[in-house]
Amino acid sequence: MKGGGGAELPRWKYIYMLLESFRKVVLPILTLVLLVKITFSSYNTTTDSLLQNLETTLNKSVPFDQQKHEAITQLQSVGITSINHSEKVGKKQKTCNIFVGKWISYPNGPYYTNETNCAIDDRQNCMKFGRPDRDFIHWRWKPDDCELPLFDAMQFLELVRDKTLAFVGDSLARNQMQSLVCLLASAAIPVDVSETKDARFRRWLYKDYNFAIIALWSPQLIKSYESDPNGYSYNSLMDLYLDEADDVWASQVHKADTVIISGGQWFFRPFLYYENGQLIGCHKCNEKNTTKLSHYYGYRMAFRTAFKTLLNLKRLKSRLVILRPFSPQHFENGEWNKGGNCNRTRPFTNQDIKLDGYTLQMYLTQLEEFKAAKREGNKRGVKFRLLDTSEAMLLRPDGHPNHYGHWPNEKKLADCVHWCMPGPVDTWNELLLSILKMEAE
């Protein structure tokens, strides 16, 4: 190996020159090719991959960070979690995601009080039981790019004339239903046409509008049976049939034109999981030779089965299915049964807290099943919409009954799961009205 002057170059120097040539010429070319490939492939990124990346990160127990929040924002921007609210400005029309925003101070009073002619469950009747502060009823949800209209009871009743609205889920679904009845009280008082005295299965009829509201209590959405030999308790073992919808709601829901489905807080207890009548695994059980599965698996399968049930109903084309995703709890200073409470009197800001941990995982699990059902619904003529309240409610640790869902001298657990009435839960129905208005348009 010789240099330009004819002298032979040492082997090491020759190799060095080759490496320098590679660094200066070949490496930049390879880098450019790789960047082009990444840029091109980014246009093909789907919501599936975004969800998968988020869930993979969560499974590795990495704390929530800005990257995950940006990924959720991207999900919202592609329409999976967003409902665009349109406002006409001159000849132009602007849209915004009504579920992305913040809570702002609102000096006016609430739409109703505990003295309004409507049914408020004592466990959420914070005014009746002497909650000393009132700031929690003086906040309104403000979307980032538009205004959320105030609730208009007359407008709501006109939109649902000759229809039936069903709330399917646990006591939080009932929380929203009772909020709606109270909000509508300024325009009309319904007749109780319930077939049972059990408040979990309430039916209200607005005769002048031929509009009915049905509450169908089904905390797991699928068939479940107590199976613990020691009897029922908060932590007792249950059989959960993952591929069979609960008849309590599945046998009644065909009567509804609009179905609001939700659930979440009942999926953390011990379960034996069954599919096709066979035991396939369990969560938090001591069964030998049984596959251990997370509660996320049961949660996913419950919503998959529920959505399939709704998709298989007759008279599909006029039906609207709305998912109200996971509602965060706010226990601090201990767990729910170990002295936990929610004493805060102001909302969080967006900088204070983000969806993370199991709350984010529950939310994303629902979102995946919702997206699959929405895709199938598009083929069959069933509309699936998202009432995306999770991030807004995460910011309201002040909105729970805490110890004011009963008399202060009663020694009972704090309630940091349900929502005071009036309170932040009324925002769910303001958002619901916006969805119904957009569907009507």
UniProtKB/TrEMBL annotation:
Coiled coil: none annotated. Keywords: Membrane, Signal-anchor, Transmembrane, Transmembrane helix. It is found in: Membrane. One of its GO terms (cellular component) is Golgi apparatus. It is a single-pass membrane protein. Residues 148-434 form the Trichome birefringence-like C-terminal domain. Residues 95-147 form the Trichome birefringence-like N-terminal domain. The keyword Membrane applies. One of its GO terms (molecular function) is O-acetyltransferase activity. Belongs to the PC-esterase family. TBL subfamily. This is Protein trichome birefringence-like 19. It comes from Nicotiana tabacum (Common tobacco).
